[in-house]
Design brief:
The complex is a heterodimer of chains A (211) and B (479). Helix content of chain A is 72%, strand content 0%. With 211 residues, chain A is an all-alpha fold. Chain A folds into two domains: 126 residues, Four Helix Bundle (Hemerythrin (Met), subunit A) (Up-down Bundle); 31 residues, no CATH class. Chain B has 479 residues and is an all-alpha fold. The chains are: A mainly alpha (211), B mainly alpha (479). At the A-B interface, α5 and α8 of A face α1, α4, α5 and α8 of B.
């Protein structure tokens, strides 16, 4: 076993175990933290596979931004863990059986006898390949259509999220700014001159005195 | 680095749709306060423009662009045109429904347009990434549309079910795609077909991938045994959204099926044919038998939709261009018929009642004999009674599957068609021979809808009397 393989196995075990913890721990905040560990170990595997850019982006974007945001959301929500886990124990045996069957199938097909290092020899790269360049150039040239569509997908996601969470209040309860009205307003609409005598009439003064 | 700017010309309809949708998305926030229906009219206008663009340079031969990730051919153009036409109908019905249900909002139309963009992308996809992205754009829009009526518990339940199961299905699909990529080292459909034909790919990995891909596709089409979500979502969703999912989205799902199985995996025909035969048998039987006990018309149409998809798959089993054309005709005819059926429910729905129970149609003939006649057209076409177009669609797929040597499947299909005729005719019987509980005349919510429903239902008869143009159109596109 080479040193690289040794590191790979450590990282892979870490990723698998922390992935298992994500779905088995009770506290959602802890689950999110385990997910961070999964991401970090996966990033390490990518680094070994010479995909430095992807590895770093995974840490910067997912660990640094997405998961932090996610943690905030999870901490703010008051999730009742017991009710979520209710159905879990009931279907537990069935779930484990299904998972084992699928795992066995996948192992038979994707296992070492088909995708092992002896069968799939990793390509020999010279040291001058820029990882960022070899991702960026196809992304903006051959795969530009997919790139734009992914952007559209994100836009739909934003529209969907806003549609589902926006609560429109009626104009009576919220004071909206009506710019048209504000521009069109004239002094006469805001300020009314009232004609009045400078002093009170004598008759009024006499009446007050009587009181 | 020699990169040639790809030709944008074949993708002009999609580009126009995206541009117009984005404009409407922004404009809606401004004009929706003053002009209630501006977004609706803009939506119809956008669809009209896209339809005209499609017609103006209708594809006669296959063109690839964007480095082979986009394909424009007459198969795609016909399906896109029908998606656009049916969507115009969907939005027309939806507006009235949303007004009646009191949740008219501009976002419904913008999300609907995004969904249609996703459908067009799926129809024109020529590699797996594009296919996946188109599918996700469409699905995300539909999940949101289902959940839009937040006060309705049933709609929320339907949305959540649809979302979770849909995510699972896309997971399956993606896993299958990754296996196919692992075996062939390409994601482009025609290149994958070449690699498989050359025999250099690993057979076991390929068939493993095919199983997952077929499961994912079957899920999206709503076939047995992956149909559990269909009745609940159809019933729970607002009728306008059911209309959207049950018509235009079905055409897109068929296009996806065709592109993947026929264009990318023709070399594995034996593998996917066997899987589809199982799915078809189950869909035909479940679709025919469970529908017998349904009392809710939307649920009935959901289960009957499963049976119809079973019929469509018969054409795919034939595995030759004739069979695919028959399936293509079937999906178009089904979409038009479903549009008429759900449109009828919407036209009669009021704020007070959804009008979606079979009992609601009791004595329809006495309350409004014209609409009862139109509903009779729809039900006869669904049951496949001549001279309606549904009959020809069924005849064509059965003929193709018999010619391909699956006579026993054809017999099964005919038997289930006879069983399913029972529940379609039951609706007719309820309308014509039962006494109404409430004999006051009933009119559609607006005159426009009355005309629309009448037009689409009459179309079923007209197409049935003159089916040759539609049939030659579809057969030529795949010949």
């Amino acid at each position: 076993m080479t040193f690289e393989q040794f590191i790979f196995y450590i990282l892979a075990t870490m990723a698998a175990l922390s992935g298992l913890m994500v779905i088995s721990v009770k506290n959602p905040v802890k689950a999110a933290l385990w997910l961070v560990l999964t991401f970090v170990s996966t990033a390490g595997i990518w680094l070994i596979a010479q995909a430095e850019f992807l590895g770093l982006v995974l840490i910067l974007v997912y660990v640094g931004a997405v998961m932090v945001l996610f943690l905030f959301v999870v901490m703010m929500l008051d999730i009742n863990v017991a009710t979520i886990k209710e159905g879990f124990t009931r279907y537990y045996p069935l779930g484990v059986l299904t998972a084992l069957a699928i795992f066995a199938l996948i192992y038979l097909v994707v296992g070492p006898n088909r995708f092992g290092l002896e069968q799939v020899v990793p390509p020999v790269m010279d040291g001058n390949v820029s990882n960022t360049l070899s991702i960026a150039v196809p992304l903006y040239t051959t795969h530009v259509y997919a790139f734009i569509l992914a952007a559209v997908l994100l836009l739909v996601g934003i529209v969907a999220a806003i549609t589902l969470t926006l609560r429109r209040r009626s104009p009576e309860t919220v004071l909206y700014q009506n710019i048209d009205k504000q521009v069109k307003v004239r002094a006469a609409d805001r300020f009314r001159m009232v004609k009045m005598d400078a002093v009170k009439k004598e008759a009024d003064i006499n009446e007050e005195e009587k009181d | 680095m020699n990169f040639v700017i790809p030709s944008f010309l074949p993708a002009i309809p999609e580009i126009a749709l995206l541009t117009l949708t984005s404009i409407i998305l922004v404009a809606d926030t401004i004009w929706s306060k003053r002009h209630e229906f501006a977004t609706y009219y803009a939506t119809q206008f956008a669809l009209f423009i896209v339809g005209m663009l499609l017609l103006s340079n209708f594809a006669t031969e296959q063109t690839l662009t964007f480095s082979g990730s986009f394909v424009r051919d007459s198969f795609g153009d016909i399906l896109k045109l029908f998606i656009i036409l049916i969507s115009m109908g969907i939005f027309m019905f939806s507006r009235e429904y949303l007004l009646q249900a009191k949740f008219y909002r501009g976002e419904f139309f913008t999300l609907g347009l995004f969904g249609i963009l996703g459908m067009l992308v799926m129809v024109s996809a020529h590699n797996f990434i594009i296919l996946y992205l188109g599918l996700e754009i469409m699905s995300l829009a539909i999940y949101t549309l289902v959940a839009m009526r937040k006060s309705n518990g049933k709609a929320l339940e339907a949305s959540l079910k649809y979302f979770v199961l849909g995510a699972l299905a896309t997971g399956m699909l993606l896993y299958g795609i990754s296996m196919l990529y692992g075996a062939t080292a390409t994601i482009q459909f025609d290149e994958m077909a070449k690699v498989i034909a050359s025999g250099s790919a690993d057979d076991v990995v390929l068939s493993f991938g095919v199983v997952f891909v077929v499961i994912g596709l079957a899920f999206k089409l709503g076939t047995v045994p992956f149909h559990m979500w269909v009745p609940d979502v159809y019933e729970g969703a607002p009728t306008a959204v059911t209309l959207y999912m049950g018509t235009a989205a079905k055409i897109a799902a068929f296009a996806m099926l065709y592109r993947v199985l026929v264009e990318a995996l023709p070399g594995l025909v034996a593998d996917w044919q066997a899987l589809i035969i199982i799915i078809t048998i189950l869909s035909l039987i479940v679709g025919a038998v469970i529908t017998l006990v349904q009392e809710n018309l939307k649920r009935l149409l959901a289960y009957s939709g499963i049976a119809h998809i079973g019929f469509l798959l018969l054409g795919m089993i034939a595995a030759n261009p004739g069979g695919y054309s028959a399936a293509m005709i079937y999906v178009i005819v089904y979409a038009i018929t479903a549009l008429a059926a759900f449109g009828m429910i919407i036209a009669l729905a009021r704020t007070s009642s959804e009008f979606d129970m079979i009992a609601d149609f009791k004595g329809m003939n006495k309350r409004n004999s014209w609409l009862a006649l139109m509903m009779l057209f729809v039900m006869f076409s669904m049951a496949g009674i001549p001279p309606f177009i549904g009959f020809y669609a069924k005849v064509l797929v059965i003929e193709e599957v018999v010619q391909a040597g699956f006579t026993w499947l054809a017999i099964l299909a005919v038997v289930t068609a006879v069983i399913s005729a029972f529940y379609y005719l039951r609706v007719v019987k309820v309308m014509y021979f039962d006494e109404p509980d409430d004999s006051t005349p009933i009119e559609p919510v607006s005159r426009q809808l009355k005309w629309a429903v009448s037009f689409i239902s009459a179309l079923l008869l007209i197409l049935g009397l003159m089916p040759s143009s539609l049939i030659t159109l579809c057969y030529n596109s795949l010949a």
